[in-house]
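We close this part of the discussion by returning to an individual protein. The encoding preserves chain order, so positions in sequence and tokens coincide. The sequence in question and its structure tokens are set out directly beneath this paragraph:

===
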Amino acid sequence: MPNLEVKVTAKDVKRNRVFFKSIIVILLFLLLLISITYGILYIVNTNGNFTITLDKNAYEEEKLEVSPRKDFEFTTHKLVVENLDYIDNITETWIPANVDTEKDGPHNGNNYMAYTFYVRNKSNDVLSYSRAIEILAKVKNVDDAVRVKVYLNGESVVYAKRTPDTNEPEPGTTPFISDKVVMSETRENFQPGEVDKYTIVIWLEGNDPECINDIIGGELKMQMNLGENTKSYER
């Protein structure tokens, strides 16, 4: 019989080591990617796509209170907005003109989310409080075409991301502060017993150039933070 020998050189050993190390790195990268994706989806699908959170200290110290009802029969430090199973793109003119006055609490419409709530100064002091809307998670960059309309005591502002090409505000909108912050303001001179009325309306703007097929199936989770200790953001 012929004498068969398998010769393994140092070069072969090194090549095999590099190959297996590459496989391990790829597997670790895929595991990390899956973990990140799962984390984003978990955040998006937990506790609703939009929540309103009052600083716990302000609530427990009875300085501020939040309610979905004008009579404040029910108060809480956290409101969870009812989700829409699916949102198709629309334009602002399709949203009812009375969206700010038609109903308290949740009143989602055809392809838009709407929620009305109230903030009251429960203390005997003149207060100031901050309000900010953060993007907690997003899938497929759906925020590129989203619009967030904030009514405060009947006056409204529409927020949107800047145009990607020119970095200019979208027509008729106030630009997001950053990729993670929609808006941030301070309410000054809030008198004892005074009530602020908010309505938040969110939709996908069909006239936005970034409203394309690539964002179909996207998800977005946002939170509005209220209270004396709410973080402040700069443009």
